[in-house]
Recover the amino acids of this structure.
């Protein structure tokens, strides 16, 4: 098909891209062994990291859900790009110029997401340039009055959308973007007479993903005659989903990952104020309430550290209290500790910094209170504590909140405080907490016999390492195959040939070994590991991938060579010892020492012992 990217170019892009750098834009990675990094899987929810990246091999694999692949498949899955679009993005990232067969451009069906990203990036540049225009004086004055200087505008990419119906449309048209592309990107709106600029006469903030690409915009109105909402955001598009993005995460992800702290504020200027005050872990939702998908996004960046902190800021009014209770309802999805910070006099972070300085903003977050404490007081406040019925109802409402506190010491302390607040015996509070905990731990009943079993999924059909026996012989075979697949050059062709010929206790491992044997002659050719994996039956390929990507239990690089040769030698030695035992048994059954078979077996035993000892150089 015309327009395909040359295969050589795809291989070159793969070779130049560091998969750890690519994944780190989406997941907080930490060392997981030699040439291994790990983090929370972005493809399913989990509490402990089972997602591993092997930079030297250029692969990732999740031992929890089975997802695996290279840098190209990772970007495809995360950003829903086509193969060609992904290769183009990665090529641009490493500065490599692609060539296409027959000189054409890649053919695609559906919206070209790369073009939508490019249109948004071009729009962001245009808006930023317009902020310096005479017309934008009203916007600059507002920013300056809120304590944001020109350097901060550039830092956050703040721009201005001209008060015109087609200013952006005409500009992007000259750059080669079509009206369809601009509309799909959410930059144009549809009217009776055609399309027109969605953002007009407003300050504009670009909303970016963790890799820095512009997904959409948030725009604040400036003029009284603007009948639109105070804040207008990009609508849902193929690349912008408001429930899955957080403003400022592209700038704050490093600090969030390193400091294990994130601060969730309510507006774009609040994020700016926090960052300028040195609180660079601040992010904000974009026109929607903080929800479960935001939690998943932050957990991937921050990791699941029980000492980590998530601090929410809410207005002290009724709407703010409802938002705080909603956040508390989702709090269990965090391993981190959750807190609530409220500024004095109900000021938001931007106003607080403007009127009282950076120190006041820092003090606000230092004075944070546990989110469960707020929820506890809200739960009790709904009842009349002057009546027996009210106190009993309050205890039933508050007990589950206290029972859910993770820290045992804090949990006991709040149990005593709850007993004081309600005038109840501590023993009654503790019993209510135990009952609440028991109710939460109830096991869902088994489905009735007449209910058909759920359909088997692709992951269930796949054999994984977790399904195999966890016996010493099987573990030894597993570790040896990991060494062979991950460091074949270190093991060497000769030792590999001996190792794959041994008798495997686990049949699945024997199949993987057979595939290695079939590829021994092509060990020095590119794509060797891929050929080994695809050489096993499809339902066993997950095992092969896991063996190729699981971290080697050796922390020091200088110890790798010794480890892999020793573990593979042990497998071969085990097989030689089994053969020796079998021959000794046969030898004992021969009564005449002069029998030719007796002497032949003796010679074979001697050779086996010699081969075994050669595996253990002095």
């Amino acid at each position: 098909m015309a327009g395909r990217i040359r295969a050589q170019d795809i291989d070159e892009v793969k070779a130049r891209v560091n998969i750890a750098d690519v994944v780190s834009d989406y997941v907080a990675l930490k060392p997981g062994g030699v040439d291994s990094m790990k983090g929370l899987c972005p493809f399913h929810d989990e509490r402990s990291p089972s997602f591993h990246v092997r930079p030297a091999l250029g692969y990732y694999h999740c031992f929890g859900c089975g997802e695996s692949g290279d840098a190209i498949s990772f970007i495809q899955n995360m950003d829903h790009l086509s193969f060609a679009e992904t290769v183009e993005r990665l090529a641009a990232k490493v500065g490599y110029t692609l060539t296409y067969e027959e000189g054409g451009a890649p053919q695609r069906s559906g919206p070209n997401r790369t073009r939508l990203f490019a249109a948004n990036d071009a729009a962001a540049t245009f808006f930023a340039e317009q902020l310096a225009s005479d017309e934008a004086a009203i916007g600059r004055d507002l920013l300056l009055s809120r304590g944001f200087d020109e350097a901060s505008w550039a830092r956050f990419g703040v721009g201005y959308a001209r008060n015109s119906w087609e200013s952006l449309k005409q500009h992007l048209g000259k750059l080669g973007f079509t009206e369809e592309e601009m509309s799909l990107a959410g930059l144009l709106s549809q009217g009776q007479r055609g399309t027109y600029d969605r953002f007009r006469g407003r300050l504009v903030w670009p909303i970016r993903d963790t890799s820095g690409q512009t997904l959409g915009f948030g725009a604040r109105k400036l003029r009284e005659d603007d009948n639109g909402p105070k804040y207008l955001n990009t609508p849902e598009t193929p690349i912008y989903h408001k429930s899955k993005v957080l403003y400022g995460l592209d700038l704050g992800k490093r600090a969030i990952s390193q400091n294990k702290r994130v601060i969730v504020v309510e507006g774009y200027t609040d994020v700016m104020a926090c960052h300028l005050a040195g609180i660079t872990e601040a992010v904000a939702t974009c026109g929607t309430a903080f929800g479960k998908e935001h939690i998943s996004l932050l957990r991937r960046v921050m990791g699941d550290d029980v000492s980590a902190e998530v601090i929410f800021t809410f207005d002290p009014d009724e709407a703010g209290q409802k938002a705080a209770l909603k956040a508390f309802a989702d709090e269990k999805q965090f391993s981190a500790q959750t807190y609530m910070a409220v500024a004095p006099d109900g000021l938001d972070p931007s106003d607080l910094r403007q009127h009282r300085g950076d120190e006041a903003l820092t003090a606000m977050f230092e004075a944070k209170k546990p989110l469960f404490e707020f929820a506890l007081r809200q739960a009790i406040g709904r009842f009349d504590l002057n009546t027996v019925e009210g106190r009993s109802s309050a205890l039933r409402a508050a007990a589950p909140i206290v029972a859910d506190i993770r820290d045992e010491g804090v949990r006991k302390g709040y149990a005593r405080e709850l007993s004081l607040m309600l005038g109840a015996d501590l023993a009654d509070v503790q019993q209510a907490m135990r009952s609440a905990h028991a109710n939460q731990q109830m096991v869902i009943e088994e489905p009735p016999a007449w209910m058909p079993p759920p359909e088997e999924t692709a992951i269930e059909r796949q054999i994984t390492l977790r399904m195999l026996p966890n016996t010493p012989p099987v573990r030894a075979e597993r570790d040896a195959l990991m060494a062979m697949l991950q460091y074949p050059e270190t093991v060497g062709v000769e030792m590999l040939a001996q190792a794959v010929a041994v008798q495997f206790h686990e049949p699945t491992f024997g199949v993987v070994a057979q595939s290695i044997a079939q590829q021994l002659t092509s060990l020095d050719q590119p794509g060797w590991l891929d050929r080994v994996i695809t050489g096993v039956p499809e339902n066993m390929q997950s095992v092969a991938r896991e063996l190729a990507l699981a971290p080697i239990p050796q922390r020091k690089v200088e110890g790798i060579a010794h480890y892999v040769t020793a573990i593979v030698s042990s497998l071969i030695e085990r097989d030689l010892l089994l053969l020796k035992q079998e021959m000794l048994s046969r030898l004992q059954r021969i009564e005449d020492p002069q029998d030719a078979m007796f002497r032949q077996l003796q010679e074979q035993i001697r050779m086996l012992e010699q081969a075994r000892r050669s595996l253990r150089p002095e």
User: Anything to note?
Assistant: Residues 442-460 have pLDDT under 50 and may be disordered. The longest strand covers residues 214-221. The longest helix spans residues 560-588. The two ends are 60 Å apart (CA to CA).
